[in-house]
Amino acid sequence: MVQTSQFCTFYLDKLLFGVELKGVQEVMRSLDMTKVPLAPAVVSGLINLRGQIVTAVDLRKCLELGSRPVGTAAMNVVVRSEDGAISLLVDEIGDVVEVEETTFERPPETLRGTVRAMILGVHKLNDRLMHVLDIEKACQMTEGAETTAAGR
Amino acid sequence: MAHVGENLLTRLRDGQLTLNPELTTALLSMVDAVRQMLKEIQATGHDGEFDYPELREILTRLQQVGVNTGKQAGTAGPIASKEVAPKGMGQEIARPAVAKDLVVSPCEEKSTGTEAPKSVQVQPVQGKISALSVAADSRHVEAAVIAIQEDILGAQQTLESRSRDAVAETIRVGVNVLDKLMTLVGELVLARNQLLQISSTVEDTGLQAVSQRINLIATELQEGVMKTRMQPIGNIWSQFPRTVRDVALGCGKEVGIEMEGKETELDKTIIEAIKDPLTHLVRNSVDHGIELPEDRVKAGKDRTGRLILRAFHEGGQVNIEITDDGAGLNEERLRKKAVERGVITAEQATRMTEREIFNLIFLPGFSTAAKVTNVSGRGVGMDVVKTNVEKIGGTVDVQSTRGRGTTVRVKIPLTLAIIPALVVTCGGDRYAIPQVSLLELVRLEPDEVGKGIELVHGVPVYRLRGRLLPLVYLNQELKLAADERAAAESDGAVNIVVLQADERQFGLVVDQINDTEEIVVKPLRKQLKTVKTFAGSSIMGDGKVALILDVLGLAQRAGVITETRDRALTEKAAEAAATSKDKQTFLLFAGPGDSRMAILLSTLARLEEFPVAQVEMSGSQWVTQYRGQILPLVRLNVVLEERRNKLRALQAPPAADSGPIQVLVVNHEGRSFGLVVERILDIVEDQADVRSPATRAAVLYSVVIGERVTEMLDIPAILRSADVSASLSRVATKSAEVVN
């Protein structure tokens, strides 16, 4: 029997990404955010998620994809990490897809830089590729040095 | 083995033996051994394969020795026969329980039989042992006996609970349950705040009455839940007698420990946080504070040193004092050591008050121990104690009288989870400032702003009752974008929050001061741990998240305090100077940009004037020939220049057409240097007691001389930054260093 796993997918700059569904706590529309001055640029701010304070991480900044176009609201994918819940800001939410392990492939050697550490690999879907995101790595990426601007 | 120990105790009881440290050690190790066995039983359910032949041998030997010496000593104290009876009972319990007799029925029988005297038995035993202990550490035995009894009682209770359902007045609750409860109450407090906010806008008396009641209930519930987290400080103190005993024995001292206010309650998290610092302080007191018995006798004191632990509530904080009656801190040695280590200059050392000198022991790497022992004197410790205590919002202070003893006072807040805070707005976002750091609020009306805020070389200060208060603009420190809406709304008034950070005061300028609120502190996630200006976050009444400012971190960022506290020391030294000498003579001169500056006249050797033609370049260093020597010229405008302009300014030769340059010749460490200034102003005598901390490098502090704000120059710092003390042949590298 072929092992399958479910992924929650979302779009960032028209690219399809996925995180394992079992790591996802919930998906929320854009929430009121408190920005954190002097914080690393990837940290967009803090969100009050039913009394729990959750750090929002802008995945576009993490993956070096440039700023989100003005006027588009980000969606929150709240994932559970070692250090409690973290909200990943994405452009658009996709479907939940079920993939077989056989369609997985490691990222090509030509993918380099910090981004490579965060992308475990891709699943070859019928019509396109789904990037598999390493949640823990993505969260660790935010521990970078203090930067000047708190990006939104 | 328990049997041997019991025999020993019996002899003690009968007065055949006198208690001595050796015996106590043996008894204590017996207790340890028994504890280990009990642990084994707890884990496996049956006897462990423990055997302590050595210990048994010691105990037996002691018993033999004891018979001899005991006879000589005679009966050591009067023992009432009624005291023997309960003690015997205690032993009865001890045997089955400690000797791991897990057969329930006889044990139960015995425990039921002894239940009545159980409560009273501790007292007489204590009394008896105190009477017996002519030798030094009766208190340790007391503690040990209590510990044994507790063990016994514990074991007994376990057995009891197995055999019948005892109705207990206390129940055990998991810490995680309490934590969860605490979080929920936190939520409730937030919801209540929201409710109050809404009900205040709605004209409905019914709703308002209900929300008021909910308000009261929530407050009480909050207090109640807080109480469940409270623990008496005695919980961590109980291990100290043993610690003290071990340390004292290790360094050949005799120490008795006394405790006052064991029942003082503290939040669980705080108890955990102060455990290690307190242990360190106690060990320190025994190792450094209390002298050897011989020295004590020589000094006319009791052979046995006293260590007193005191805890009490005061002003919403808990004070913990650790007092010893030892030698006290040696002020002179501290001074010398501090100067040797380069922590302070010799000049500063002579000016510092006793108390400031004592507090030097909290600096990293500072130890006065003549020799390093395995306990202390490694130079780590006191600074860690201070950091740990400050981490939970507390303070440490030390007081000492030579030859009479030392007192270390630790002040800590009751709880960390919910704190009162001042909420301010800046750049459109709200920030909470913990009330503990708050001193006062100052509002400058628009027409006062102009004359209220003065500039020291571009750095804003405010005169608060004659003292200069450095101002920190929150929006600048946090690099917030200017909020146009707020700017438009504001009437030009300036709100200053006067804050205290590590004994320094500064004014934080914010857009708006909202209100004080009880906030629930939520820690920041690791992604934001690097941001030192925030201590945590909290959810406000309207459900939005607000950040809690870390006043200490903010002050460090703004440069009000430096991490090594050296600035504070300099400032203190300067303050001490001001109090020790009423009037000082200053040389006033104009620095770059016509700023008013001064140095103490005593530091000046000569005033000179050189034509520009006499100035020569040695690399990028200006020099001149002066009395047959090469006099390096340090240009103040370069030293004080903005970093980016420094290199350019440094390399510029003197402009040929400018007039003669004014030079202050100063001697520093046996060499002469020329300080190039714009213009000499005056020599004045002034008290100069209105001062404020420096706002930039190379300045010691700002001071009011002749009714005007004047900057006092820090000559050693200037020479250091100009690096002229290095040999002139190294000028090639010099420019780079200066830029750094």
Distance between the termini of chain B: 70 Å
Beta content of chain B: 25-35%
CATH superfamily of the largest domain in chain B: Histidine kinase-like ATPase, C-terminal domain
Q: Write down the oligomeric state.
A: heterodimer
- Identify the overall geometry of chain A: globular
Question: Structural class from helices and strands of chain A?
Answer: mainly beta
Number of domains in the coordinates of chain A? 1
Instruction: Report the uncertain regions of chain B.
Output: 67-139, 371-379, 563-581, 725-740
Q: Please write the string of helix (H) and strand (E) elements of chain A.
A: EEEEEEHEEEEHEEH
Instruction: Tell me the distance between the termini of chain A.
Output: 46 Å
Q: For the largest sheet of chain A, list the strands in their spatial order.
A: 9-1-2-12-11-10
Largest sheet of chain B: 6 strands, mixed
Q: What top-tier CATH class of chain A fits best?
A: Mainly Beta
Mean pLDDT of chain A: 80
**DSSP summary: helix tally of chain A:** 3
Low-confidence stretches of chain A: 143-152
CATH superfamily of chain A: CheA-289, Domain 4
Strand tally of chain B = 30
Largest interface in this structure? A-B, 29 and 28 residues
Structural class by sheet pairing and helices of chain B: alpha+beta
Instruction: Report the principal-axis shape of chain B.
Output: flat
Could you explain the architecture of this structure?
With about 150 residues, chain A is mainly beta. Helix content of chain A is about 10%, strand content about 45%. Chain A has one domain (about 5-145): CheA-289, Domain 4 (OB fold (Dihydrolipoamide Acetyltransferase, E2P), Beta Barrel), CATH 2.40.50. In chain A, the strands form two sheets. Chain A has a six-stranded mixed sheet with strand order 9-1-2-12-11-10. Chain A has a six-stranded mixed sheet with strand order 3-7-8-6-5-4. In chain A, strand 1 (about 5-10) and strand 2 (about 15-20) form a beta hairpin. The longest helix of chain A has 6 residues, at about 135-140. Mean pLDDT of chain A is about 80; it is low at about 145-150. With about 750 residues, chain B is α+β, with helices and mostly antiparallel strands. Chain B folds into five domains: about 1-165, no CATH class; about 175-230, Helix Hairpins, CATH 1.10.287; about 230-415, Heat Shock Protein 90, CATH 3.30.565; about 420-560, Beta Barrel (OB fold (Dihydrolipoamide Acetyltransferase, E2P)); about 565-740, no CATH class. Chain B is built from 25 helices and 30 strands. Mean pLDDT of chain B is about 70; it is low at about 65-140, about 370-380, about 565-580 and about 725-740.
